């Protein structure tokens, strides 16, 4: 925690769904920013919790959202008041320590009019032979002219090489661009979990609202990653960008599943989607399921997709320059993910790169 | 420095090299010529250690060590450089980053400290100027969207930065216009050194107008059919490769 303090990042640590500590509280409260555990928020700011909780992800949304709504014990709460630019990055660090349990934390971030916040989320869990469930719900609300940037580096235990153990990561994440000119940006680097079902989405309700989704999903050994986003265009001139990079290795399966929906009232909505898949080895799979529901003829929607392999020629070229095969693979994979990594805050980008290298260790040989 | 004895190599079960014997000493420039399919590029790839090629017999010694037992990256760190005929694109990997990693891999191997960023940039800019290369190419993806000429110049830039003991240039001249050819030849000439050997693999005599070889070898059907000095290249230009084929089969 000390290292994090030095880096100037405020941290809320949540172990087994219990928030254990929040740093930099005083500095944040000077700016009027509320950053605390959910249980504290219920005690100290009940009016805000009542006003926004469950308004983006209702308790009847899906099975795992219902489960979370029924049992969640804690999580993080953030409120950025009108016109405030949060003076530092906010971060929650999640860890599942206990055996035979799940984690059901809840995150609610509200950015009031004209405010700005960047929020980071990191996750780890120790190795266990049995599967564990992580069923979190994250709700973001951006009012007029507000901006929320939400970054995740997810490294839940993925199970062993034979697929024993690992986390089931079934998470509902949704942001509501409720006000005009608001913006919500999701950036995720997903390397862990045995099975991931996760589709951080944006409801682009406000006029000129902007939704972004940048994702790197790595699946090695027996992992299954099924991830993507939904961009629901309701407001006029709403815009969305989707950049998804999937990397599959071992016997893993990696799917991009995304929905772009343009409602009849969303005049001049625009979307650009780019889905790239990289395959390492012969037994893995990459799948792309882009859904588009366009109900307004003025919409402009673009979808680009590529699937590639690291070629023998690329590896040999690097090796001929004196670079080991493993370093060459890391270099090529990081190059492939560059567009997403550049969206991450600096400290996280370095960590994400290192994590990727570890996740793919021995994937080519 | 390089001793190749009766080297036979195949790819996918087809024998391409059928007994090549060649010696290269420091300070020498050799040209290896020959018609398409004669095994020129295969010879270059086998020396560099491409995993697709299988050496079936013969030996290759580099400074009296068995080269064939070394991995490609070890050969590179020992000072062997291959300029590729078709340099591969590596999207998203910064050209300068790869170059720096290559330099540091060799330095580490020799127990030297890593090159510092300032020294690297100075050196790169200086060499790029000599090659008449646009400085922006350093910050692009490796060969990503480069023109044919830019890719070849980029190979020579790497050559100039890495300063290998043995440089093998595989058809570096092919597909170049005259300005690019001169720039590439200038880059190669600047690297001539009593401690360094250069092997030019080429189909045409054209490059040899600008880089004067000490020896010319003609490969035909997987063997060296003739060796001589630079006048052999001129003879070839005049008579064509059929002349060698006839001589070889006679």
Question: What is the overall shape of chain B?
Answer: globular
Number of strands of chain B: 12
> What fraction of residues of chain A sit in β-strands?
35-45%
Oligomer: heterodimer
Indicate the mean pLDDT of chain B: 91
Largest sheet features of chain A: 10 strands, mixed
How do the strands of the widest beta sheet of chain B line up side by side? 6-9-10-3-11-12
Q: What characteristic shape of chain A results from the CA principal axes?
A: globular
Most extensive interface between two protein chains, with residue counts: A-B, 23 and 31 residues
| Largest beta-sheet characterization of chain B | 6 strands, mixed
| E-strand count of chain A | 22
Secondary-structure element order of chain B, N to C = EEEHEEHEEHHEHEHEEEHH
In short:
Chain A has 365 residues and is an alpha/beta fold.
Question: Can you put this structure into words, describing what you see?
Answer:
- The complex is a heterodimer of chains A (365) and B (250).
- Chain A has 365 residues and is α/β, with parallel strands linked by helices.
- Helix content of chain A is 20%, strand content 44%.
- Chain A has 8 helices and 22 strands.
- In chain A, strands 2-1-5-7-10-12-15-18-20-22 form a 10-stranded mixed beta sheet. Chain A has a 6-stranded parallel barrel with strand order 11-13-16-19-17-14.
- In chain A, a hairpin with a 2-residue loop joins strand 1 and strand 2 (18-22).
- The model of chain A is unreliable at 1-7 (pLDDT under 50).
- Chain B is of the alpha/beta class and 250 residues long.
- Helix content of chain B is 36%, strand content 28%.
- Chain B contains 8 helices and 12 strands.
- In chain B, the strands form 3 sheets. In chain B, strands 6-9-10-3-11-12 form a 6-stranded mixed beta sheet, sandwiched between helices. Chain B has a 4-stranded antiparallel beta sheet with strand order 2-1-4-5.
- The longest helix of chain B has 15 residues, at 95-109.
- The model of chain B has no long low-confidence stretch (mean pLDDT 91).
- The interface between A and B is medium-sized, with 23 and 31 residues.
């Amino acid at each position: 925690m000390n290292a994090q303090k030095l880096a100037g990042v405020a941290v809320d640590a949540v172990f087994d769904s219990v928030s254990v500590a929040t740093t930099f509280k005083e500095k944040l409260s000077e700016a009027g920013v509320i950053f605390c555990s959910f249980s504290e928020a219920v005690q100290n700011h009940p009016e805000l919790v009542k006003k926004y909780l469950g308004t983006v992800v209702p308790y009847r949304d899906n099975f795992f959202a219902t489960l979370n709504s029924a049992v969640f014990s804690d999580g993080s709460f953030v409120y950025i008041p009108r016109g405030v630019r949060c003076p530092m990055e906010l971060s929650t660090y999640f860890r599942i320590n206990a055996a035979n349990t799940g984690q059901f934390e809840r995150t609610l971030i509200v950015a009031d009019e004209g405010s700005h916040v960047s929020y980071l989320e990191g996750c780890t869990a120790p190795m266990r032979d049995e599967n564990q469930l992580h069923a979190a719900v994250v709700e973001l609300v951006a009012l007029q002219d507000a901006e929320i940037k939400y970054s995740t580096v997810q490294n839940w235990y993925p199970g062993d090489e034979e697929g024993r153990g690992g986390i089931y990561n079934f998470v509902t994440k949704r942001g509501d661009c409720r006000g005009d000119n608001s913006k919500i940006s999701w950036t995720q680097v997903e390397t862990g979990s045995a099975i991931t079902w996760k589709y951080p989405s944006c409801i682009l309700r406000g006029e000129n609202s902007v939704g972004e989704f940048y994702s790197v999903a790595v699946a090695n050994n027996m992992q299954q990653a099924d991830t993507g986003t939904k961009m629901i265009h309701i407001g006029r001139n709403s815009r969305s960008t989707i950049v998804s990079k999937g990397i599959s290795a071992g016997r893993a399966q990696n799917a991009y599943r995304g929905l772009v929906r343009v409602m009849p009232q969303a005049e001049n909505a625009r979307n650009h989607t780019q889905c790239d898949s990289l395959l390492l080895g012969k037994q893995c799979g990459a799948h792309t399921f882009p859904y588009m529901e366009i109900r307004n003829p003025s919409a402009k929607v673009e979808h680009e997709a590529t699937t590639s392999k690291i070629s023998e020629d690329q590896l040999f070229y690097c090796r001929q320059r004196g670079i080991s095969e493993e370093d060459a693979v890391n270099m090529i994979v990081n190059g492939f993910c560059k567009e997403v990594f550049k969206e991450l805050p600096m400290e996280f980008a370095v960590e994400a790169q290192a994590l990727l290298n570890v996740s793919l260790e021995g994937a080519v040989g | 420095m390089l001793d190749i004895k009766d080297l036979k190599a195949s790819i996918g079960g087809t024998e391409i090299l059928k007994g090549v014997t060649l010696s290269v000493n420091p300070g020498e420039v050799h040209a290896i010529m020959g018609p398409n399919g004669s095994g020129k590029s295969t010879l270059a790839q086998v020396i560099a250690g491409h995993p697709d090629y299988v050496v079936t017999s013969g030996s290759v010694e580099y400074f009296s060590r068995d080269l064939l037992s070394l991995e490609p990256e070890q050969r590179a760190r020992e000072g062997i450089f291959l300029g590729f005929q078709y340099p591969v694109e590596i999207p998203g990997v910064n050209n300068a980053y790869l170059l720096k990693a290559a330099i540091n891999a060799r330095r580490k191997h020799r127990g030297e400290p890593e090159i510092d960023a300032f020294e690297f940039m100075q050196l790169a800019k200086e060499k790029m100027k000599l090659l008449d290369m646009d400085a922006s190419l350093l910050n692009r993806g490796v060969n990503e969207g480069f023109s044919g000429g830019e890719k070849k110049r980029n190979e020579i830039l790497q050559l100039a930065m890495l300063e290998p003991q043995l440089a093998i240039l595989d058809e570096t001249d092919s597909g170049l216009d005259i300005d690019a050819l001169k720039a590439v030849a200038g880059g190669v000439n600047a690297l001539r050194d009593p401690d360094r050997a250069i092997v030019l693999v080429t189909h045409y005599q054209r490059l040899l107008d600008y880089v004067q070889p000490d020896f010319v070898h003609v490969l035909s059907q997987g063997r060296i059919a003739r060796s001589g000095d630079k006048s052999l290249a001129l003879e070839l230009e005049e008579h064509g490769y059929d002349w060698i084929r006839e001589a070889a089969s006679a």
